[in-house]
Amino acid sequence: MRRHPTDGTLRRLLDEPAGVADADREHVAGCPVCLSGLAAARADAAVAADALSTEVTADVDAAWQRLTAGAAAVPPAVQVAPPRRARWRAALRSPVIAAAGVVALLAGAGAAAAADWLPIFRTERIAPVTLTQADLVALPDLSAYGDLRVSSEPNVRPVAGASTAAQLTGLAVPRVGELPRGVTGEPTYQVGDRVTAVYTFSAAKAAQTATAAGETLPTPPPGLDGSQFRLTAGPGMAAVWTEARGVPALVVARAVAPAAYSSGVPFATARDYLLKLPGLPADVAAQLRAFSGDGTTLPLPVNSRYLTSSAAKVGGKPATVLTSRDGALAGVVWADAGVINAVAGSLSADEVLSVARELR
Known about the structure:
With 360 residues, this protein is an alpha+beta fold. The chain contains twelve helices and 15 strands. The strands form three sheets. Strands 4-5-8-9-15-14-13-12 form an eight-stranded antiparallel beta sheet, with helices on one face. It has a five-stranded antiparallel beta sheet with strand order 1-10-7-6-3. About 19% of the residues have low confidence.
């Protein structure tokens, strides 16, 4: 029977993960005893860092309010967006963002060692998760179960043309074969940067949330408290054809597919626990269970009040077709070789599928 790695090895997983043997790393990832020891080592490291830190804390939100009190005197061209923390805090309160976040954290698979992060998810296909309006209202707010730290944001912006979009994103520009009826002219281009965020699960925060809702929080498995999930997506680009009144008639977009990583907790451990959290609607949890184990299917939240979804094929790849219930809008999204592709507009489902299948 193999012995557990020493306390020194567990600490090295935090400080110098590349120096830990693959056999020890794999043992820790699947051993509850070692995961508990790893969590304790992480807590000790945090205490030491706090004791040695000379950083001065401040209320960033209050400071921003004071700074922007005189924003009317600043020319619009030089006004600055609110701090990232404030914007992402507001986003976490959105049920749509909460849905995307929850399914992203649940959509993973068995880990393979890679430096200090264990890959748990890569996008190979997309599948819809149907959400009712009641589901969207009931979905848990991720900020109530932990903390999100965003290190890079999309920064979506217009660019001069296709060559610039390709240069900034490293992606091949999608070329439309034949424009649908009613869509004319040349497109404008937009790009977005890579998004990177780290979500840290907090058992204490989750317990407070459950208590406030009159629920009982299931006991977290060893190592989950304080564990981190790193989420990445992008960069991406979009070609946009606009109607005379300024409304997009056709959008063809492409982006590096989302991926997720864990600080050491195996996917199955996190998945089984997160699916039991209070507030996650039973029907949503059931849909996630149906395909969340393969680690390659990206759940796509679909609000059934406004949209219907159906399956199709684009270039031999599974695709999801979305159509507004009034028939005014349609879109199709699919994954291919690590890239998410989408075509949407004021068109029919047949029209967006025709554009998608003829892309070069």
